[in-house]
Specification:
Distance between the termini of chain A: 67 Å
CATH architecture of the largest domain in chain A: Orthogonal Bundle
Oligomer: heterodimer
Structural class of chain B: mainly alpha
Number of helices of chain A: 8
Strand content of chain B: under 5%
Distance between the termini of chain B: 48 Å
Order of helices and strands of chain A: HHHHHHHH
Largest sheet of chain B: none
Mean pLDDT of chain B: 71
Low-confidence stretches of chain A: 1-7, 90-122
Shape of chain A: elongated
Strand content of chain A: under 5%
Number of strands of chain A: 0
Radius of gyration of chain A: 19 Å
Helix content of chain A: 55-70%
Order of helices and strands of chain B: HHHHHH
Largest interface: A-B, 73 and 55 residues
Helix content of chain B: 55-70%
Number of strands of chain B: 0
CATH topology of the largest domain in chain A: Arc Repressor Mutant, subunit A
Bound molecules: zinc ion
Chain lengths: 197, 151
C-alpha cells in the first residue's frame, strides 16, 4: 500500500509537469478559440481558465494517443455550450424559422460601445465576430472548429460528441446564419471579400 | 439531384467532406445550374472570411495567471489527480475487506441469508464505480469557483 501511494505521488508530479508544458504550448490557441466563441476578452479568459481547471482535474483520464487540443476543445466547447444554455442565450429559434426579413430576435450589440476594438487587427474582423456571436452556440462551435481551427468533420464530431452527419448539417446551417447576419448588418464585408476573390 | 439537395451538400463540398458519389452527382448538377453555382460562390466567400479571421492574442500576463490559478486551485483541492487514485484504491480495499467479511458471514450462515450478502456487495461495487467514473466533460454538476458559470 505504501509503495502504491509513493508511486502515485511520483506520477502526480510528472503529471503536473506534463500538464504544465501542454498548457503553456496550447493556451494561446485555446484563448483565441475561446474569444471567437464568447465574443469578448473577459469571458474568453474565464472560459480558458474553466477549461484548463477541468482538464487538469481529469488529466489522468486523458488518452495521450489523441491530440491534446481535441480533448481540450471538447471540454471547452462543452463548457461554453453549458454556459450559454445557463444564461438562456441559446437561440432556440433558428434563423430558418424566422420571417423572410429575419427581423425580430436579433440583439445587435452596439459597435461603438464594444470595449475590445483595439484588439482587432483588421477592419473586417469586428463585424465577423459580431456575426459569430449572434449564432446558435452549436452552429458557431462547429463552424469555428472547421474554418478557424481547420479540423476535419470526423474530428469535430469527436470533439462535439455527435455524428458526422450532424456536424455537416450544423456547419451548413451555421454558415447560412452567418451569411444572413452579414448581409443584413455588414454587407460591405461580403462585398469586399467578393471583389477580392 | 434537385437544387435543394445540391445546396445541402455545398458546405461539405467546399470542405472536401463529400463521398465520391455525392461529389460526382453534385458536380454534375453544378455544371447545369446557374443558381447553385451562384450559391457555391457565396458560400466560398463566406468560408474565406472565416478562414482569414486572425488569431486573438491573450494579455501578456495571462499565461502566468493561468498557471498559478490552475496549480493553486489544485493544491487546495482534495480531489482529482493527487488524491483520486489513493482514494479509489482505499475504497477498493474497504470494499474487498467488507466483501470478505460478508462472505465469511455467509459461509457461517449460508442457509439463513444468502441474498442479503449479494445486495451489500453489489451496492459497494456500485459506490466504487460512481467514485471512479466522474466525467470531466459531460458532467455539468462538476463546478469550479472561477466565476465563469455565474456570470
Ligand atoms: Zn441547382
Amino acid at each position: 500500500m505504501i509503495g502504491v501511494i509513493a508511486k502515485d505521488r511520483i506520477s502526480s508530479r510528472e503529471g503536473q509537469a506534463r500538464f504544465e508544458s501542454l498548457m503553456r504550448c496550447t493556451h494561446r490557441q485555446a484563448y483565441s478559440l475561446a474569444y471567437r466563441l464568447t465574443g469578448n476578452a473577459s469571458e474568453a479568459e474565464d472560459l480558458v481558465q474553466e477549461t484548463f481547471l477541468r482538464a487538469y482535474r481529469f488529466f489522468h483520464k486523458y488518452d495521450a494517443q489523441l491530440p491534446f487540443t481535441s480533448w481540450l476543445y471538447r471540454i471547452m466547447t462543452n463548457a461554453h455550450i453549458d454556459s450559454v444554455r445557463r444564461k438562456g442565450r441559446l437561440r432556440v429559434t433558428s434563423l430558418d424559422q424566422m420571417g423572410p426579413d429575419g427581423a425580430g430576435t436579433w440583439d445587435v450589440p452596439d459597435l461603438d460601445s464594444s470595449p475590445d476594438r483595439a484588439m482587432m487587427e483588421e477592419a473586417l474582423d469586428e463585424p465577423v465576430q459580431l456575426a459569430l456571436t449572434s449564432m446558435t452556440a452549436e452552429f458557431r462551435t462547429a463552424v469555428l472548429l472547421a474554418d478557424v481551427e481547420g479540423m476535419a468533420y470526423e474530428e469535430i464530431a469527436e470533439v462535439m460528441k455527435t455524428s458526422v452527419g450532424t456536424v455537416r448539417s450544423r456547419i451548413h446551417r451555421g454558415r447560412k446564419q452567418l451569411r444572413r447576419f452579414l448581409i443584413q448588418h455588414s454587407p460591405q464585408v461580403i462585398r469586399r471579400i467578393s471583389n477580392e476573390l | 439531384m434537385n437544387c435543394k439537395n445540391a445546396q445541402l451538400l455545398l458546405s461539405a463540398y467546399l470542405d472536401s467532406e463529400l463521398t465520391g458519389s455525392e461529389m460526382h452527382r453534385l458536380r454534375k448538377h453544378l455544371s447545369d445550374c446557374d443558381c447553385c453555382r451562384q450559391e457555391e460562390t457565396e458560400l466560398r466567400t463566406l468560408k474565406s472570411i472565416l478562414t482569414d479571421v486572425p488569431q486573438v492574442t491573450p494579455p501578456d500576463d495571462f499565461e502566468e495567471r493561468l498557471c498559478s490559478l490552475v496549480f493553486a486551485q489544485k493544491r487546495s483541492d482534495d480531489e482529482g489527480w493527487n488524491r483520486s487514485w489513493p482514494l479509489v484504491s482505499g475504497v477498493a480495499l474497504i470494499t474487498a475487506a467488507l466483501t470478505l467479511l460478508v462472505m465469511n458471514h455467509l459461509s457461517d450462515s449460508v442457509q439463513t441469508a444468502p441474498k442479503q450478502g449479494n445486495v451489500v456487495a453489489s451496492e459497494l461495487r456500485r459506490d466504487q464505480t460512481t467514485l471512479a467514473g466522474a466525467n470531466p466533460i459531460f458532467d455539468s454538476s462538476t463546478s469550479f469557483p472561477t466565476g465563469y458559470e455565474g456570470k
